[in-house]
Structure prediction request, 355 residues.
Amino acid sequence: MRKIIHIDMDAFYASVEQRDNPVLRGRPIAVGSGEARGVVSTASYEARKFGIHSAMPSLSAKSKCPELIFVPPRFEVYHAVSMQIREIFREYTDLVEPLSLDEAFLDVTVNHKNNPSASLIAKEIQQKIFEKTELTASAGVSINKFLAKIASDYRKPNGFFVILPEEAEKFVETLPIEQFFGVGKVTAQRMHSHHIFTGFDLKQRNEAELVRLFGKAGHIFYRYARAIDEREVKPHRPIKSVSNETTFLQDKNDRILLTIELYHLAKEVFERVEKENFHGKTITIKVKYADFKIITRSKTLPQKITVFQQFWHIAREMMKQIDLSQKPVRLIGFGISNADNELHDKDLQPELKLF
Ligand code: TTP
Ligand code: MG
Prediction:
């Protein structure tokens, strides 16, 4: 039996802004640009009461809550906080799998503190996060990733929730199928059309039927309905390339938000560049528009890029040249290639692996 914790920061960007500017505390705020084409990156809990949420167009947000305050994002700060919380996680276990800047899975079945209680560890982590960052996080504890993630969302904000092994199956029965991992809008509709609304309904169907309805995912849904999820917490994602890309849940055409995404990508790519000691000369940006048209832009420098500031400066300049006036963007990618040492490192092959 494994002991898995999922930690997720509360209203992450917005909480950081309220922490750093007392004027914003207790007020409805949205991180993002308030301009016509802007979208909300995240909203403070005060703003959520008005129905404001991530990815909502800023103008709709403003009409729902006229006193809403828009705050421009400060991605360096969010990144720094993310590094702080990851450091806390690693005090307990090396099995830390970040899912984004503000959330991660931890496998604490065996841990550095020899603490047999995952619940106590989760509470300690929440406490330490608060002491170090003055921010709150929610924690979920259970026997697998699927349930730990649902648990962390259950009592947000500053929530703590445990799904015990003996309660797991009953708990899953009560879940709306929208909350199952891998069930998006389309799958949910398909399930509804077959009268599957909850974990209980799902459990009534045999595996062959679920596979017929949902393909390979049917095997997984069959297991989830029985509270079984064998996915491991993977600390080191295999490095496939020194590039990375993000597909957005919703298309974006807000230059500030796209620049934030690019910054996160650049940080991640650069961390790997340093870890692998792979310093390239060519930087490439890839953009896939909403209509799936892909463009790439590359820039090659005479010398290899060894400093993040330089790396980021070039990326940002390249981003400025991307046309956002015609259609929104569904994916952005970023990579580095053309390193001096590429011939010596047969595992990397950056040219082949770039995107
Ligand atoms: P989430 O964890 O999804 O949201 P949150 O931390 O703001 O709020 P919650 O308390 O419900 O966890 O996302 C983390 C951060 O990622 C969020 O603060 C801003 C950013 N983000 C976007 O920029 N765009 C998006 O569409 C989403 C969902 C998040
Ligand atoms: Mg969060």
